[in-house]
Amino acid sequence: MSEAPPPVPDRLYGRRRGHPLRQRQQRLLDVTLPRLAFDPADPLAAFPARPRELWLEVGFGGGEHALEQVAANPGAGLIASEVFENGICSLLTRLVPEGQEATAPLPPNLRLWTEDARRLLRALPEGSLSRLFLMFPDPWPKARHAKRRFVHPSIIPVLARAIRPGGEWRIATDDPTYQAWVAEVMEAQDAFTRVSLDLARPAGWPGTRYEAKALREGRQPMYWVWRRQG
């Protein structure tokens, strides 16, 4: 890169809420969501059984990927991060039958974070994450909005501190601007080494609604795995 973009400000962009929440959705936020809260300074203590490793998904959208990962990997504790309230409600609706918001069992290896994920990454203990997922993030395609993208030169040191040596960072996007941006940002750093780049979703990567939409509309996703250098 010829000139580094300005640091990412510690603030949220985009919407927190879409359409008005229904009574059931509001009850999920008021009653169920607190049951999945945790202390970022000691996240492993929030799980009933201490997981063997800690994973984080940044921007879980409707929750499809997060819930499949939780079901398929009971030994890993997953923190699913999302600020959009309708998306949070979408995930919680899948977990809790109506009328059982306060009592229904919840996945023991799932916790939710509903603030900016960058704040969480700065608060986590050093080297605490074994895997980070960034699945089809908002591309912010205009050049003047580059600072709003999660993949950004200023986030690399933050991720390098939070992800243990040998840990994985998985990125998927169908947006050509974001694909080029990922390549540009990651080629200019030395904290992460590229393990793979695929044009078809690899095994062990659950699908999302955003991927399905991209494929229906003829866009080509890319799937990266980056490894934290030791």
Automatic annotation (TrEMBL):
The keyword tRNA processing applies. GO terms for molecular function: tRNA (guanine(46)-N7)-methyltransferase activity. S-adenosyl-L-methionine binds at residues 57, 82, 116, 138. Pathway: tRNA modification; N(7)-methylguanine-tRNA biosynthesis. Gene3D superfamilies: Vaccinia Virus protein VP39. Its EC number is 2.1.1.33. SUPFAM superfamilies: S-adenosyl-L-methionine-dependent methyltransferases. The keyword Transcription does not apply. This is tRNA (guanine-N(7)-)-methyltransferase. It comes from Teichococcus rhizosphaerae.
